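Retro notes
What went well: the complex prediction finally ran end to end.
Inputs used:
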Amino acid sequence: MKRIFSGIQPTGGVTLGNYLGAIRNWAALQQEDYECIYCMVDLHAVTMWQDPATLADSTREVGAALIASGIDPKKSIVFNQSQVAAHSQLAWVFNCVARVGWMNRMTQFKDKAGKNRENASLGLYAYPALMAADILIYKATHVPVGEDQRQHLELTRDIAQKFNNDFKVDFFPITEPLIFGAATRVMSLRNGENKMSKSDPSDMSRINLTDTADEIAQKIRKAKTDPEPLPDAGVDPEEGRRERPEAFNLLNIYAALEGSDAADVQTAWAGKSFSEFKSALADLMVAKLEPISTEMRRLMDNKDEIDRILADGSERARALADPIMQDINDIVGFLR
Ligand code: AQP
């Protein structure tokens, strides 16, 4: 039996980056021979300050985005992490299994903590141990990962291995990454060197799945580019991304939305003007995102419906996680 776990932080609205890089792949996985568990990781979200007045609604919004993007909550388990206590219980055990030296090598902590590392939360530092617990509390066999999460999945494998060795058991699986053929990394519309992010202070840097057609058109029109026309067909994409990150980002987004090969899109638009291209990109984006945003808005207007779906998901998640946590307690030697 193949079991998939993946998570997304309810740290704000859902971006086109979350959709193209993760959510649409999660929806596609449901077609295959997998049991899928998709989680709004609110415990991870609070490793950075979250306003309590908006966290619950952000959680609902992310849940709505998943469902509107085609994740079927009857087929897959969709829930929020804080409602399944076993995530936190196992995270503590893993805090005691993982080594400080391992955590010190995690590049995401360095990126997110920034210069003022002493002032970062302890939770942000221990984030990868909680992520390992998220995956292993279900004994998930596969995790869809983007490039940015690869290091954390490696750590999950190390923690599983060390737990099995320390306690002389063959308990946790060594989880495999699921890498998608054309993994899409969507960059900011204001700076092609940074990834598009929910928490970027500038709303113009990202497309939110709830943006209206006019907002999308405006953001694409104002997206940063350079004075040259679109690149020639022969330009190597790796080199192109280094030299003209904004141009190649927009080409990539177009290809990902259309479901076509990036090289074909580059050839089709070679030498053309950005104004023509941006207008086609905005039209394509609106056509693809409108059905999702319409369904998201419907769900957001029906909070009871979304809350019921998440409560049902939490119950099903607990039914899987609790017996595994009980076994772990026995292995560690906690008195029942
Ligand atoms: N720009 C992106 N391009 C491709 N994939 C992306 N993902 C996020 N941004 C992009 C993927 O979305 C999934 C969920 O991400 P997350 O919410 O757990 O955290 P994140 O990667 O830190 O996303 P954000 O939007 O940048 O959130 P904040 O601003 O809160 O840090 C992951 O699979 C991720 O790879």
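What we learned: The two ends are 30 Å apart (CA to CA).
What to try next: split runs per interface for comparison.
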